[in-house]
Backbone:
């Protein structure tokens, strides 16, 4: 367990990536009590200098003894690196908060969204998993509704930005858009098809059941975070030509009847949620409004007239912040309380 201190030695693993950069920014903006910051990335980034609080910090490469003396390590370096290095860090006495998919469904590892299940931090054994970005924003909204009316089923369709894939995908969208507008040949590297001016109903690998890994992550992670295997979830995940922020269309079936106004009132009191819902004034969440924000925005709240106890809504969150970096830092904040 983490010893109580006035300040902590913190590491960011995968510091040069989109989420790693956002983790550093979030630590700075939230004034996390840092004694010193260590930055790690792949060998090709070794020696590169990154800015943090007006200082230049050199990027290091990972070694067997590099985690000695580090209190908390925020990992965003992919599942393969996390599989190798997270146990090394934990054995060194460091608490790992891992953003990859590697540990999420491990029964020995808590999967945490602080607004939903911070109590699960009490049984960590050195590694804590940060959920999938699309799952995080959904469960922040589902939990307060579940507490009042008990959710039976969720049907979710996501509209996920390219930053969820990383910087190379953001560059590809920019390049393809520029090439299209200048009548140049379109090249694809990151995605199997052109993403500019297109949508791809395909995130991660396809599985034998016809779903993608991303879709099944939302199904399985939701049950683990909410602590309720009875909640039925079905998902369709879609990549859209947006740089930042994931949007989701949710259809929620509850045991207890909720009106749209009752749902708004529940969510208005929920931590980390902003109700942004006045359709008569064209007020509803959009990526251009939510980018760089910490909260999950909810709008288009209305009753589903096709079933007895159903609610439809539209939610948007910044996938690099609440969907990744912010949630990891919030977990660290809970740990030091």
Residues:
């Amino acid at each position: 367990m983490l010893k109580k201190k006035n300040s902590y030695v913190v590491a960011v693993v995968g510091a040069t990536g989109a989420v790693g950069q956002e983790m550093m920014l979030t630590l700075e903006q939230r004034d996390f009590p840092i004694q010193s910051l260590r930055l790690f990335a792949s060998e090709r980034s070794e020696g590169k200098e990154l800015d943090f609080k007006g200082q230049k910090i050199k990027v290091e490469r990972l070694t067997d003894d590099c985690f000695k003396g580090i209190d908390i390590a925020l990992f965003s370096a992919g599942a393969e690196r996390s599989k190798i290095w997270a146990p090394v860090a934990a054995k060194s006495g460091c608490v790992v908060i891992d953003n990859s998919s590697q540990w999420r469904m491990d029964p020995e590892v808590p999967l945490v969204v602080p607004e939903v299940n911070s109590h699960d931090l009490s049984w960590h054994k050195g590694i804590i998993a940060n959920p999938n970005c699309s799952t995080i924003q959904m469960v922040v909204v589902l939990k307060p509704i579940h507490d009042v009316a008990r959710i039976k089923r969720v049907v979710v369709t996501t509209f996920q930005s390219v930053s969820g894939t990383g910087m190379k995908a953001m560059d590809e969208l920019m390049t393809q858009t520029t090439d299209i507008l200048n009548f140049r040949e379109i090249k694809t590297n990151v995605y199997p098809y052109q993403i500019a001016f297109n949508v791809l109903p395909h995130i991660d690998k396809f599985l034998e059941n016809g779903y993608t890994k991303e879709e099944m992550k939302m199904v399985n992670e939701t049950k683990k975070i909410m602590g309720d295997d009875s909640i039925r979830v079905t998902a369709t995940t879609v990549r859209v030509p947006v740089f930042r922020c994931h949007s989701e269309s949710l259809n929620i079936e509850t045991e207890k009847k909720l009106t749209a106004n009752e749902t708004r009132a529940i969510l208005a009191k929920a931590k980390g949620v902003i109700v942004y819902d006045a359709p008569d004034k064209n007020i509803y969440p959009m990526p251009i409004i939510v980018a760089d924000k910490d909260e999950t925005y909810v709008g288009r709240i209305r009753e589903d007239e096709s079933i007895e106890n159903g609610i439809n809504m539209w939610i948007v969150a910044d996938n690099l912040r609440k969907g990744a970096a912010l949630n990891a830092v919030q977990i660290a904040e809970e740990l030091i309380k």
